[in-house]
Amino acid sequence: MSKGKRLDVEAEDLPRLPPGRHGLPREFVVENQRQRIAAGMIAAVSAKGYHDATISDIAAAAGLSRRTFYGYFKTKEDCFYDTYEMVGSFLLEAIGEAGGEERAWAGRVRARLAALLDAFAANPDLASFELGVPPAAGGDLAARGHAFLDRLLEALLAGQPKSARQPSQATVQSLAGGLAALVLAKVEAGEGEQLGALLPDLVELLLTSYLGREKAAAEAAKS
Question: What's the whole-model pTM score?
Answer without folding.
Answer: 0.84
